[in-house]
Amino acid sequence: MQVPFLDLKVQYAAIKDEIRRAIDEVCDSQQFILGSRVRGLEDEIARYCTIRHAVGVSSGTDALLLALMALGIGRGDEVVTTPYTFIATAASIARLGARPVFVDIDPARFTIDPKLIADRITERTRAILPVHLFGRCAEMEPILKLAAEHKIAVIEDAAQALGAEDEHGRRAGSMGVLGCFSFYPTKNLGGFGDGGMIVTGDSSLATTLLALRNQGSTSKYRHFLMGGNFRLDELQAALLIVKLQSLDQWTQQRINNAERYNALFHERGLEHLLRLPELPKNERHVFNQYVVRASRRDELSRFLKSRTIGHDIYYPLPLHLQACFKDLGYKENDLAASEQAAREALALPIYPELTVPMQEYVVDAIQEFYGGRSS
Ligand SMILES: *Cc1c(COP(=O)(O)O)cnc(C)c1O
């Protein structure tokens, strides 16, 4: 058997007719830039995130950049964030001339450890940028409290977490002042190319974002800000509207798959060799990734490859040790929990259409690798 890490073709086959119809409608209209579909998707995403405003943009990376720009963050400013994330989280900060200040993670959930943040806040700190990694919300309550005490902003990197909820039932993206999403094809709501969205409850920030994404302008040839071309395509929005109708069903399938993996690994007595992701009772973890911590991870990775089982490593090198950030002056062992996660983490296939026999095949192979007790 072959088990791909992600198979977008199965999903496409199920919605192909609707997608082709949506493409035709946009082509027939010849309206490609900032039309009714972008507006429609913005309305639907705002409602989905239980928040007032949403602004469609060109990617998740640009969502982060524009969120920081909208707050006027730049040279001399500091933004506290996690080193255990995709590069865009911190590169967006650095691109604006501000300094990413890395705070280590809570090993149990892979997200920024709120207990370590207070010590890193200075008079230059303008924002905290937590990442809802793998589809689970960061521990937001203490982060929001700290930010309120210090009168600094919280920007949520919710690229992997559309539809996730924290333990108070609050949707990812709706808790901070700005929330950033990505429609990169591998995210839970993936487009047919690049795309992103910023949500906010603040209408003046929403106006600023509308301008920043479109040459600093909200009326033709009047530019009140220095913006750029960060627009979401009409075609992309039309296709995302189709896919959004199935998101909750796909998310439920991801959750079911995660529960099934955990049950199977427990049945085989493998839960000590593979630390399994938590299935938090009072939260909605949307499992963009199912990430275990594996002993002998790199050996296991080679073994899975030999069995044609797709898998990936998120993330092999934490951001504080990346060459592009060497000027920040971090060194090995500075952020030990992130470095340990980078050595142990292994993502297994979790996409909605993954079948039960495929999951059993993955679990069987891992059991064989560790020589665990047979089922
Ligand atoms: C995917 C991702 C981004 C960037 O999104 P793009 O649409 O690829 O630019 C940012 N942060 C995190 C955590 C991501 O997973």
What does this protein look like?
- The chain is built from eleven helices and twelve strands.
- With 375 residues, the protein is an alpha/beta fold.
- The chain folds into two domains: 8-244, Aspartate Aminotransferase, domain 2 (3-Layer(aba) Sandwich), CATH 3.40.640.10; 247-370, Alpha-Beta Complex (Aspartate Aminotransferase, domain 1), CATH 3.90.1150.10.
- A seven-stranded mixed β-sheet has the order 1-7-6-5-4-2-3, with helices on both faces. It has a three-stranded antiparallel β-sheet with strand order 10-11-12. It has a two-stranded antiparallel sheet with strand order 8-9.
- The longest helix is centred in the N-terminal third of the chain and has 22 residues, at 8-29.
- The two termini are 19 Å apart.
- The relative contact order is 0.16.
- Bound molecules: pyridoxal-5'-phosphate (PLP).
- Pyridoxal-5'-phosphate binds at residues 59-61, 85-86, 88-89, 131, 157, 159-160, 182, 184, 194, 196.
